[in-house]
Design brief:
By secondary structure, the chain is an alpha+beta fold. It has a domain of about 280 residues. Strands 1, 2, 3, 4, 5, 6, 7, 8, 9, 10, 11, 12 and 13 form a 13-stranded mixed sheet that branches. Helix 3 runs parallel beside helix 6 and helix 4 crosses helix 5. The longest helix is centred in the middle third of the chain and has 22 residues. The chain is globular and about 65 Å long.
Length: about 425
């Protein structure tokens, strides 16, 4: 365990030291370390294979999502969520949850959401049909389908998780919660009964399931973690930008670029050589408790009697995280988990060792996440087949754009 020091950049040192107890302009603590002062640690990539496995089995959830506009004015988002396991479990791999969230401008269009299947706890396949009658923005379809599919699939198979569940992304549905602050027209979709609200509830129920399991089980229960491949938070940046008392500026575009800078600088300042080879070290921070805007917004929804949990102010639900820097790819990652798990030094260490070992060996995200990504991946031909089948079912055609022709890719259809 080492403390960060970089005499070449006083701004970085100043910002880092303030993370020991970061307050916003209202003097509310929004970030602080767990049970320790600030530190940076390293993990030897070359020696990763000598570390024992923290979790004998691992489960991960991911989805493939496609947005389709049609020439009759209808638009639809198709999402297929899957759960991967390590070691492989064919029964779990073959189970999926397909969500189709659609909007039609025709007031006489049939409401197909009545055909929604029951999402139980079986290993079978589930189909969810949902409609958003008054659609403020088309992106709401894509994000609602994605979170409704992933949240329900993870919840459906939660009882099959033996050792750890890894979400490919944050443990909070940040895409939905971003509507809360920046898009009041979409925020209303979270307040009214409908698929967006049900997607949010699926994540609340998922977190509640794992938190309550940990509270009510005497032995160690499986933790829930999120592995964020592209973290782009601005909690720290916003705090410094809105503070009138700081003498040093926050010069980085977002929080992750700051963490990348200090972790890379730490490796260089400790005399590490060959940063881009397997002789290098991974660098990572201590765990933090976050009371960021997104976390507080999620807590607001937890207090909703129709959506929430028994005791939303319980600190065991708090969001915690730590950052990892891989010098071989020059990439930064974020690992999240509820405080009910990370309050234990032993569990923090187990999560760290698991993620760091996997990253060191597979040169990127843990293997089970890559497996989930592979299972959920839809090829261009699959996307075209799905699009044409749905278009035929609704007696219309796909409303293609120039990019879909230029790149020969259905991926471009989601770029609104």
């Amino acid at each position: 365990m080492e403390h960060y020091s970089d005499r070449g950049n006083h701004s970085a040192t100043f910002v880092w030291n303030n993370l020991n107890h970061l307050e916003d302009h209202n003097k509310q603590v929004i970030l602080e370390p767990i049970a320790s002062d600030l530190y940076i640690n390293t993990f030897p990539i070359r020696s990763a294979s000598s570390f024992s496995s923290s979790f004998p089995t691992q489960n991960a959830v991911d989805s493939g999502t496609l947005y389709l506009p049609f020439t009759n004015g209808m638009s639809l988002a198709y999402s297929r969520a899957v759960m991967a396991t390590e070691p492989s479990d064919r029964n779990l791999h073959s189970s999926d949850t397909i969500t189709m969230c659609y909007h039609s401008p025709d007031p006489l269009a049939p409401d197909l959401s009545r055909d929604q299947s029951d999402v139980g706890e079986s290993l079978g396949n589930s189909i969810i049909m949902a409609t958003i009658p008054d659609l403020p923005e088309e992106e709401a379809l894509y994000e609602t389908a994605l979170y409704l599919s992933e949240g329900n699939h993870a919840l459906k198979l939660a009882n099959h998780v033996k050792d750890i569940l890894v979400l490919d992304g944050p443990i909070f549905p940040v895409g939905l919660l971003a509507w809360y602050q920046g898009k009041p027209n979409l925020k209303n979709l979270l307040s009214m009964d409908g698929p967006s609200r049900r997607a949010l509830k699926a994540y609340i129920d998922l977190i509640d399931f794992f938190v309550n399991s940990a509270i009510n089980t005497e032995s160690e229960s499986p933790p829930l973690i999120g592995f964020v491949k592209n973290p782009r938070g601005t909690t720290i940046k916003s705090t410094f930008d809105h503070s009138s008392n700081q003498t040093e500026s926050f010069i980085w575009p977002h929080d992750s670029s700051f963490f990348k800078y200090i972790l890379r600088s730490h490796l260089l300042s400790t005399g590490s050589e060959n940063l881009t080879t397997n002789d290098a070290n991974l660098a990572y921070t201590n765990w933090f408790i976050s009371k960021s805007r997104i976390a507080l917004q999620f807590e607001d929804f937890l207090t909703d009697m129709d959506l929430g949990i028994t005791n939303p102010k319980n600190p065991l639900y708090d969001l915690t995280f730590f950052m990892i820097y891989d010098p071989r790819s020059d990439l930064i990652y974020r690992v999240e988990s509820p405080y009910v798990f990370t309050q234990s030094p032993n569990m923090r260490k187990k999560i760290e060792n698991y993620v760091l070992k996997e990253m060191a060996i597979y040169n990127g995200p843990p293997r089970v996440i890559n497996k989930a990504d592979h299972l959920a991946h839809m090829s261009n031909s699959e996307k075209e087949n799905i699009g044409n089948l749905l278009a035929s079912s609704f007696h219309t055609r796909i409303d293609i754009n120039y990019n879909s022709l230029r790149w020969h890719s259905m991926d471009q259809l989601r770029n609104l």
